[in-house]
Amino acid sequence: MRLSTVILPIHRWSEGQKIWRRAEDLGFHAAYTYDHLSWRSFRDGPWFGALPTLTAAATATERLRLGTLVTSPNFRHPVTLAKELITLDDVSGGRVTLGIGAGGNGFDATALGQEAWTPKERADRFGEFVALLDRLLTEDAVTERGTFYSADEARNVPGCVQRPRLPFAVAATGPRGLRLTARYGQAWVTTGDPKLYEEGTPEQSVAALRGQAEKLAKACAEAGRDVAELDKVLLTGFTPDRGRPLESVDAFVDFAGRHQELGFTELVIHWPIADSDFAADQTVFEKIATEAPAQLG
Questions:
Q1: Where do the DSSP E strands lie in 25-182?
Q2: 8: which of 17, 82, 275, 285 lies 20 to 30 Å off by Cα?
Q3: Residues 292 and 2: beta-carbon distance below 8 Å
Q4: How confident is the model at residue 297 (pLDDT cuts 50, 70, 90)?
């Protein structure tokens, strides 16, 4: 069981760099950030770009893996995204994981002036986006004519430091997304069942996550792939447990153990932010980071 954190891009770098360095010092496996133009209750406050933030973090750290949770097609194009990811992978010395998902409505989904996409169009776009991005990160030159995304001799020499490309951690719970995960993913990401967040119980959440994992295993079997090849990542904070697992080391170990039994190999906890849904005691948070992994094995 690996323990990682997600650091929202809300800090000017003079302060933000201290947090990323501290994440490395605490021994986190990875530190991720959200890839949005704005997000929920943070919409009217400071919010910086994910990839420049990760590039700066790459120069401020040495061992920590870095990544997005998650990038989506809402305002990204595979051709430009591939170029930026190859650069980030190079700057970091091959420490980048791309968390990638279909995105959702609201917030930055219409920031470029487009109409909100239907669920079917979002799924269609995501499938085309991931397939083209996979090619762009593994081939020197790509020409592709798609319904939504195209490339005309897009060059990406020298490619990723990580071979054949940097890993994809695909966020998915529906059948089409899980099939994409089985085909292109090196990891699977979930936040649980959002319908349970308000009124569900931790037990219902565990059952829902078990069901999602079983669907992933089925998608992998249909793709002729061993589901054990994929890391299973739970981005915490969106299940009925909410912030309770961060109240003490024992509470976290209990929470993590229940999810480890489901096959999850990595848990991601939010770096504390005062006066927000991610508020937590910093001292307890750091104790969890340093003490909990040894208890989980």
A1: 30-33, 65-71, 96-100, 141-145, 150-155, 168-171
A2: 82
A3: no
A4: confident
Sign of CA dihedral 132, 136, 140, 143: positive
Number of neighbours of residue 32 by Cβ within 10 angstroms? 28
The pTM of this model reads 0.96
Query: Which residue in this structure is represented by tokens 């340093």?
Result: 290
Query: For residue range 249-284, what is the model confidence (pLDDT) as tens digits?
Result: 999 999 999 999 999 999 999 999 999 999 999 999
Question: Which residue matches tokens 């591939």?
Answer: 82
Q: Which two tokens stand for residue 166?
A: 């940097």
Answer whether residue 159 shows pLDDT above 90.
Answer: yes
Alpha-carbon dihedral sign for residues 88, 94, 97, 102:
positive
